[in-house]
Amino acid sequence: MTIIFYDIPSSAPGSSWSPNTRKARYVLNYKGIPYKTEWVEFSDIESHCKKLGILPTSTKRAGGGPHYTLPAIHDPSTGAYISESTKIAEYLEKTYPDTPTVFPHNTIGLQWPFNDAYTSLLTPFWMFILPATFEKLHPVSQAYYRTTREAFFGKKIEELMPTGDAATKEWANCKEGLGKVSVWFEKTDSSGPYLLGDRVSWGDFVVASYLVWMRIIWGEDSKEWKDISSWDGGRWKRLVESLKEYETVV
Amino acid sequence: MTIIFYDIPSSAPGSSWSPNTRKARYVLNYKGIPYKTEWVEFSDIESHCKKLGILPTSTKRAGGGPHYTLPAIHDPSTGAYISESTKIAEYLEKTYPDTPTVFPHNTIGLQWPFNDAYTSLLTPFWMFILPATFEKLHPVSQAYYRTTREAFFGKKIEELMPTGDAATKEWANCKEGLGKVSVWFEKTDSSGPYLLGDRVSWGDFVVASYLVWMRIIWGEDSKEWKDISSWDGGRWKRLVESLKEYETVV
């Protein structure tokens, strides 16, 4: 039976843009598990999850109530509803053990904390990519995105983007952050583009999900994506291209 | 030839207590590489490193100059001087490829960022363990420890330790932090005590180094160590005991 995959739409090519949903989408495609996408606007995620009994993934910063996020999946063959990308990956590993693993060599315990280590280095990107993302959302999701992101940053989305010298400096910080991630890849004694060398795994999907977000939102011909593609010896462009076949949106 | 291993002494049993030096010590013992310890007081680390040409490992928080830390090693067979525990592990892997690896299955790229993900969850411990550590240092190192730690926390070492209800609450935060680390271990589908299941690796040495620090400073019979030993189904005591043979101080 076909898994239902809940993702957030946009006006960008392919519609799917969220790095968090992409992690799960990468895994579904990599494993070759049949699924189809159902699109849920930001503003509908909470009611959608409550209706289906999908668990919240964290606690809201403001007010402290349950926070519902995507990705989520429904697997009709087991009846399961699962939210949060690492939990989805873990569920698919256990439920479909004959598909290719994203946690080879029992590395799940090392891969689990990887996401936080990586995204903490991406912080300088948010002020650039969030306003651009906002522009690509459908109006009903824009309203939700504005409210939540402006509450988090304490300023209007239109004021997030740095300008002039500040932009140059902050963009250099973005490059420095990815440079530190590049060091992790360099440590692997291998010619492969992946964290484990020639063997793709969860950590690569995590890294690539944020890069694909940027490529999709800014576009391949943008100054930003061309910059990123030139950093670290072209590592990021190569990584994303090597995983292109798993970007498919169905 | 015998590697010289530079460690920080104390009045605790075995003298060695620092979690950062223990990471490298674990690796030397695990690999079975001959070494001997030379003890360097905190206050002498900078002059010691400068004299030998050992590189600083970071930048000082105050003033921004080079910050010299231990562990460091000198390998007379190559002439190399290496500082910082992950760099020492990497050096030993490359220089002694016939010894057991601490980065099995090409996991170095995943293991590299593990330390930060782990120690960020240990933050609540600092206010308890730092004052107790101070008590075990030799007087000349105490002076250095006081200056640097008090500058960092903005309060006197004697004021760090919480009391009453605050102590109960902060100790519960310590338990919660290790509980999150326990989840990473639980993910591994194996009966082994290690992050990769039955195969020890760098991440386990990182986790255990901080636990051994606590056991050494507080003592096996302390209320604190008995508490930690009881958490997460006894996971932490089991982990540390399974690595006991690699604690040797020579």
Automatic annotation (TrEMBL), chains A, B:
PROSITE patterns, sorted: GST_NTER (PS50404)
Ranges of residues in domain GST N-terminal: 8-100
SUPFAM superfamilies registered for this protein in UniProt: GST C-terminal domain-like, Thioredoxin-like
Protein's name in the database: GST N-terminal domain-containing protein
Organism of derivation: Pholiota conissans
Organism ancestry: Eukaryota, Fungi, Dikarya, Basidiomycota, Agaricomycotina
